Amino acid sequence: MSERIREFLDRQPTPTPCLVLDLDLVRQCYHRVRATLPQARVYYAVKANPDPRVLAVLAGLGAGFDVASPAEVALCLAAGATPESISYGTTVKKRSDVAAAFGAGVRCFAVDSPADLAHVATVAPGARVYCRLFVPDDGARTPFGRKFGCSPAEAAALLAAAGQLGLTPYGVSFHVGSQQLDPAAFARGVRAAAEVAQRGAPVPMLNLGGGFPVGYADPVPPLAAYSDAIRGALAACFPGRPPRLVIEPGRALVAEAGVIRTEVVLVAQRDGRRWVYLDIGRYGGLAETENEAIAYRIVSSRNGSAGPVVLAGPTCDGDDVLYQRTPYELPLALRAGDFLEIKAAGAYTASYASVSFNGFPPLVTYCVGDGAG
């Protein structure tokens, strides 16, 4: 946790739950990612945290933006992004959404099916299109499964059809799944992209997607391991002139910049286990605890000897349980009214919070720092 966040939490009697973001840490994370893979243009995955203050910092640093709705387009433009810096990366979109983005100046769209390509061709004439490939996402804590992506053969056919429809074939993309713990997954994606080029399709741009992990309760491979895997695959698969590279980090830019403060609502014994109920749960911003996929680092305001706990949220939903299998220990003296801090919580928390399930308000975000240093 940064000193700025610590000082804010110690000084401000803020209602909980709340998320506190250090914008200077966002800036530092951006520079770290850029330094690790300097040949790639960074397009921030807006869904990770669409706070306008985060977007403004990244726009000021020259980042591009990966969006999935007209609302995200509008957020980026209002934060200072140019239409040219926005890529519409989802392959599941209404024709009216494509038209709205095109009307706002966006000229780059992902596709992975003939139907989606037809949407773009109809209402975004002349736009650049790139095909999203399916690649295995083994090793990801939150995989995409088969929801997105096509085969190299299908991608080559789609790019050829795009040219015939008056669009500009721009390249291919893939995504290896969020919080990807295996650097070799990116090499597999590069090999799939090379197969598209081998089929005669133009691949001037290769979008490597996101998936770069951050450390939560457990350590993860360093970013350098991912850049090494990517560089090695590019050298082997594109030995001549490599394509222009794009990456779409979300978690890697904002997760470590955020801390959630939550209050203990209740401590109870149930069937021999100590249950600790918090004022934040899966519907308040901790959606990534589903199936206990992401195990956050959680610390207590109390000291003293600790023991095992089950952690749950405050709502009347039986699924609103955070951790039953993942081992967590908290102080035995923990009581209602105590505070816990959830580390590295800047990504996929506030953007996942429900509007008012059970009447609980969305997760409030505070920002410290200015991101300009």
Describe the structure in your own words.
With 373 residues, the protein is α/β, with parallel strands linked by helices. It folds into 2 domains: 24-253, Alanine racemase (TIM Barrel), CATH 3.20.20; 256-368, Lyase, Ornithine Decarboxylase, Chain A, domain 1 (Beta Barrel), CATH 2.40.37.10. The chain is 29% helix and 25% strand. It has 10 helices and 18 strands. It has helices at residues 3-11, 23-36, 52-60, 70-78, 95-103, 114-123, 152-164, 184-198, 223-237, 251-254, and strands at 18-22, 40-45, 64-67, 86-88, 108-111, 128-132, 140-142, 168-173, 178-180, 205-207, 244-247, 258-270, 273-278, 298-300, 306-312, 321-331, 339-342, 364-368. Strands 1, 12, 13, 14, 15, 16, 17 and 18 form an 8-stranded mixed beta sheet that branches. Strands 4-3-2-11-10-8-6-5 form an 8-stranded parallel beta sheet. Helix 2 crosses helix 3, helix 7 (152-164) crosses helix 8 (184-198) and helix 8 packs parallel to helix 9. The longest helix is centred in the middle third of the chain and has 15 residues, at 184-198. It starts with a helix and ends in a 5-residue tail after the last strand.
